[in-house]
Amino acid sequence: MNKQVQVRKIAKNWYHIILMLGVVLMLFPFIWMFLSSFKTEQEILFVPPTFFPLEPTWNNFVSVCSRIPIFRYFLNSVLVAGVSTLCVLITSALAGTVFAKYSFPFKNLLFIIILGTTMIPFECYMIPFYLMVSKAGLIDTYTGIIAPLVITSFGIFLMRQQVETIPDDLMDAARIDGSNEFGVFLNVVLPLSKSALAALAIFNFMFGWAFFVWPLIITNSSEHFVLEVGLTMFQNQYTVEYGPVMAGTAISVLPLIIVFMFFRRHIISGMAMSGMKS
């Protein structure tokens, strides 16, 4: 018995060591980026490289704030991520409820097709989508930037799994009390899906905040640039100004870290609840 306990302790210790190594490997690029934002351009290119700045400087942050309208780009990113998140919450909650609680022809087939789209990279249908947006006259507009983000197959799947855990008796009781189907959705489904909605909101906000390729090709004027696209102004065909890029990237990552630190419990509980079935 003691031998089994000892083996379990050793296995648990190794498990923790492997997890810590994984954490270090995942955090290292962010730590390197943050420290490099305080280095001079010459020190960033040192061979062998230095880990900590030899002469810490704020010049990179000053350069970012003075050479590009970073606060405008920051607000654009907030607008794109915020509006797209709101749209995804609405569309995913409605579609997830329909797939979970209502019957209609080819429901399962349609749901399988929606899940299948998760395996198709956005780059595969980006050009057709660009042509559609162009025909609609939405090039270089906030609406054009947000358009691909208003509905996601992952959001539909997550909300379907969550709504399936809601007992039908609760929804029937609301109908008996006089609620129509939309009232059942507002008064029963949404209150019981707060954790899943919070998790979906955080995931989608983080995705919308880091959205890069589509805003890059859809925007022409700098006033519509999101933060990630705005940072490309520090590079050209021949050179990259690594210091300002590191500083700007550190600024762009900060909101995501804050969101995750404050709402990490909602992410875990939402994902756990989405995998349960009644």
Task: Kindly describe this structure.
This protein has a single domain, classed as MetI-like (MetI-like fold). The chain is an all-alpha fold and 278 residues long. Helices cover 69% and strands 0% of the residues. Helix 4 packs across helix 8, helix 8 runs parallel beside helix 14 and helix 9 crosses helix 10. It contains 14 helices and no strands. It is globular, with a radius of gyration of 24 Å.
What key phrases describe this protein's structure?
mainly alpha; 278 residues; MetI-like fold; globular; 14 helices
The description of the largest β-sheet is:
none
Work out the radius of gyration: 24 Å
Q: Say what oligomer this is.
A: single chain
What is the overall pLDDT average? Answer: 86
CATH architecture: Orthogonal Bundle
Number of domains: 1
Which structural class fits the helix and strand makeup? mainly alpha
Q: What is the H/E order? A: HHHHHHHHHHHHHH
Q: Beta-strand percentage?
A: under 5%
Number of helices: 14
Number of strands: 0
Per the principal axes of the C-alpha atoms, what is the gross shape? Answer: globular
